[in-house]
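Quick start: what a row looks like.
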Amino acid sequence: MSQLQNSISAQIRARCVGFGFFANRLYSFAYNRFAKHRTDFAIIEFVQESEFCNWLSIPIRFFVLYCISFSLAAKPLQVEVKAGSATLMNAETGAVLYGKHPYAPIYPASTTKIATALFILAEKRPPLDLMMKVSAESLRMRPLNKNGDYPPYWWYSDGTRMGLREGEMLTVDALLHGLMLVSGNDAANVMAEGFCGTVPGFVEEMNQYLKRIGCNGTRYLNPHGCHHPEHITTAFDLCWMTKEALKIPKFREVVSKLSYMKPKSNKQGPSELKQMNQLLKPGRFHYPKAIGVKSGFHLDAQNTLVAAAVHEGRMLIAAVMGTANTADRYADAIRLFETAFAEAKEIRRLFGPENIFSRQVPGAKIELTAALDRELLISYFPSEEPNARAFVHWDSPRLPIKKGQKVGEVRIVNEKGDLLATGNLFAKTEVKGTVFFVLKDTVIHFFR
């Protein structure tokens, strides 16, 4: 508590009274001056509140700028993985619990298909029964053991596929299952063409979308993940895009299925598509807490995996990239999940009734002092301890202010602005107006 109390004693606050132009100048000065007093990982923000009073019918705006800023450092998980790059992320908050070269460029292999499904469901939002036709171009393959300048979306003849045929008509729903369950490179190209006319056009739009949602280390050249030296992403970005995808019920439904019966089409009879993610399937790597998402492999990427798991309402996402063998990627993911799920929540006391908050009130004889009527606490897992900021939001009560009157509140927020805790502030003593203020107030009310 001593470090926190020191930051409280060094409260960052400013007050200014003025008309539009002068108030703006003073606000700029206050911001530039106080923004220099930044603590590690904490961002100073100023809360603006205003009241309007009438003095000879001239509106005067009163600004209160008041912030207490402090940093609570999370404790990274103590765990080792064999993957060359890995990230563990909270699927709800985006908090990173563990990172091993999380921003290093890597080849994603078929985990690329997470972005493809996300972009289609989040941006294109098609009817699931929309029919799409398989073109000859969507089935084009690169010749094995031959060098050449082939389009990046041509896939390898030994690559995973749904087994589509030229001219076949299928629904978007069937293609999504083929994309995510059996890692169909053909399904990826068919949907890319169907939604954007060409595969390169689809990929360009998908990259723009990924940038918009915060995947700044990603640049894809195809929708399926077949190798190209410039087709890259990061473990962090894969977790981030998966976080967005898991918000979509259809995505969660598809990636959690063990199998899907592909309906009869104009070219083929019905067939069963079976899940490839071994965390979901009975066997050596079955993990009961797993809910999906996608595995991948090619020689340059080695073994890749993005997985999600839930325990007691806490959903986590693991990206494990570049393991030498299949077993290591699943073992790494399970190790990350189990280490995080073994954490016990901690409770941190941030403020209590002993902490005094004060401000000058225009026209008052004395400074207004206030305190909380209860403790402000936050609970968190140690690896997700938030960088917190406390904002004091003052009310604008008329004088006199009575002892015990509510005069504001303290709000604890994380670095994204999400509210963690809040408590009311109450006046510790009565605050009366000066003789001049009382006379002025009397005159104003007399002439109203």
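That is the whole record. The CA atoms of residues 2 and 153 lie 59 Å apart. Residues 326-341 form the longest helix (16 residues).
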